[in-house]
TrEMBL record:
GO terms for molecular function: hydrolase activity. This is Zn-dependent hydrolase. The lineage of its organism: Bacteria, Bacillati, Actinomycetota, Actinomycetes, Micrococcales. InterPro entries: MBL_Glyoxalase_II (IPR051453), Metallo-B-lactamas (IPR001279), RibonucZ/Hydroxyglut_hydro (IPR036866). Pfam families: Lactamase_B. Keywords: Hydrolase. Residues 30-194 form the Metallo-beta-lactamase domain.
């Protein structure tokens, strides 16, 4: 039986401060940060807004790394501080470096993520799935042993993530969901970067409706 525990840390903060497309004070968002581990080690998925909350969530355990689902500000803005305080490494798909650099400049992540890259925590395998669409370097992290996938901003309860930017693709995100996520077992739990969990079984029947509405 797996000794893995999953903790969701809800963080809140402002993005886009000082940017012309946002109000002067920025735009407030609430994010999910996921901490996977047992009593001795932990792996973090995303690093949003609040490094202190992430450090507290890991506690005295060995931090095996911080895996980033994509490069948007609200998923990476606490990454550098959290990694330094936890003495661990940052992982990001290289196709999202241009977004990372908007937040962190020349301070690069430590390692590049690639489709199929595998991590281990608390005896469980964590498999990287490259799921472009929301951003070119978006990824999800699947734990086949416990039928769970951490979907970042690729799939939410109610449909795909946003594709309103010039570097995004609705067709791409649908193809990613269809080929990488909807091939997972139907009872797979989907834990996104914002909001509540869902499941493959709950979302899969709505694919044609998403295509009809175009988002």
């Amino acid at each position: 039986m797996s000794g893995l525990r999953i903790e969701r840390i809800e963080t809140r903060g402002f993005i886009g401060v000082g940017r012309a497309e946002f109000p002067p004070e920025g735009f407030e968002l609430e994010n999910n940060v996921w901490v996977l581990g047992d009593d001795s080690e932990a792996l973090v998925i995303d690093a949003a807004h609040d490094a202190e909350a992430i450090v507290r969530g890991v506690g005295e355990r060995t931090a095996l790394g911080i895996l980033l689902t994509h490069g948007h500000e609200d998923h990476v803005n606490a990454a550098v501080e959290a990694a330094e305080r936890l003495d661990t490494h940052l992982y990001l798909h290289p196709a999202d470096l241009f977004l990372w650099e908007e937040v962190h400049g020349d301070r690069r992540p430590d390692f590049e993520l690639a489709d199929g890259a595998e991590f281990r925590v608390a005896g469980e395998s964590v498999v990287t799935l490259h799921t472009p669409g929301h951003t070119p370097g978006s990824v999800c992290f699947a734990l086949p042993g416990i039928r769970t996938v951490f979907s970042g901003d690729t799939l939410f309860r109610g449909g795909p993530g946003a594709t309103r930017w010039e570097y995004s693709s609705f067709e791409g995100i649908v193809d990613s969901i269809r080929s990488k996520l909807f091939t997972l077992p139907l009872d797979t739990r989907v834990s996104p970067g914002h909001g509540d969990d869902t499941s493959i079984a709950h979302e899969q029947p709505d694919l044609e409706a998403w295509l009809a509405r175009g988002w």
